[in-house]
Design a protein that fits this description.
about 350 residues, alpha+beta, Beta-Lactamase, Alpha-Beta Plaits, 3 domains, 12 helices, 10 strands, about 50% helix
């Protein structure tokens, strides 16, 4: 395991030489210099390091020789093995006081880098796993099934997907006892296989993230089906119900499926282009839909007169050619609202 790469070693040298007035070298497990304040020495064999590796202890060199320079050389030991050597060039009496400090700092920085790389590797593996199980083409192999168990997921059992979006970065540690997969800095997905706990999860989301939008799928045998349902439902929530924070796929199944199948519909794109500059009209249309086309309730929610509401609905008709009071036209306007959601 090579945890002392050249780029990391040179970074350590550069940091330490800002405070220590001596040249510092770092050698790998074979004694080759991989980082140095004297770039000309990189790639050459450091005989003091070779001796330190051989003896497994600090080696002090008091005189310059044909192949060595005076200074102190200290083995770098991590997880029970020597991974390299750090050397400080100069008079031994002068460099010795810096020896343990430089070695300890090097070990600390190597450990921090190793931990970060391990964390990033685990994140990448987790992300790749999630992409696999949310891909409709994925077959549940034995290997994938075993990998799923490490995330407390049983691929042979039904599941529900809870999809959550926030207007700011997510702190997933606020949600306890539920495994999550981050989709972006502000979107996260939960896979729930014990439906008795779904309500508890939603309570935690509401309590910890009062600004969160969340959608929930039906119960499905394949996770990819639930993921698509939850994402489709989220688009409906954001497009049609701006004043609500939660929606279930079961509530909007028909319109969510149609919107997904028609996601590249040019008619909707044209309507979006026509209505996008008119925020007030878009909000009016959304409230009109959330009030089930009840004019009095819509006007009350918007705090406007009913005549003003009718004027706005007429403007939508004039701008788009689609009448919000006509059920077939309204369906097209609904698709427009959903398709404008990114």
């Amino acid at each position: 395991m090579n945890i002392l790469r050249q780029s990391l070693a040179q970074n350590i040298v550069d940091k330490m030489m800002k405070d220590i007035p001596y040249n510092i070298n770092i050698m790998d497990r074979t004694g080759i210099i991989i980082a140095s304040g004297n770039k000309e020495r990189i790639g050459t064999l450091h005989h003091g390091a070779v001796e330190a590796l051989k003896q497994g202890k600090t080696v002090e060199i008091y005189k310059d020789g044909k192949f060595v320079k005076k200074g102190i050389n200290l083995p770098i030991e991590l997880i029970g093995m020597i991974v390299g050597v750090v050397g400080i060039s100069g008079e031994v009496e002068e460099t010795r006081p810096f020896g343990n400090l430089v070695r300890s700092t090097a070990i600390l920085l190597i450990e921090q880098n190793h931990a970060l790389e391990k964390e990033n590797l685990e994140k990448n593996l987790k992300q790749e796993f999630f992409q696999s199980i949310t891909d409709p083409e994925t077959i549940y192999t034995k290997e994938l099934t075993e990998q799923a168990l490490s995330y407390n997921i049983k691929l042979n059992e039904p599941s529900q997907i809870v999809y959550v979006e926030l207007p700011y970065d997510f702190d997933k540690d606020r949600i306890k006892n539920f495994h999550s997969f981050r989709l972006s800095s502000s979107a996260i997905c939960f896979i729930v296989q014990d439906q008795t706990k779904t309500h508890s999860l939603q309570e935690q989301i509401d309590s910890n993230y009062p600004d969160a939008l969340s959608s929930i799928s039906n119960i499905n045998d394949k996770i990819s089906d639930g993921f698509l349902q939850a994402k489709s439902a989220m688009r409906v929530l954001k497009g049609v119900y701006p004043n609500e924070r939660f929606i279930s796929y079961a509530k909007c199944e028909f319109i969510a499926d149609l919107a997904y199948m028609e996601k590249s519909d040019t008619k909707s794109e044209r309507l979006i282009h026509l209505l996008e500059p008119h925020d007030e009209l878009i909000k009016t249309l959304q409230i009109y839909l959330s009030c089930n086309m009840n004019l009095n309730e819509t006007a009350s929610n918007l705090i406007i007169h009913r005549n003003t509401l009718n004027y706005r609905l007429d403007r939508i008709f004039k701008i788009t050619g689609k009448d919000p009071k006509n059920i077939l036209d309204l369906v097209e306007l609904i698709f427009m609202l959903i398709h404008r959601v990114k």
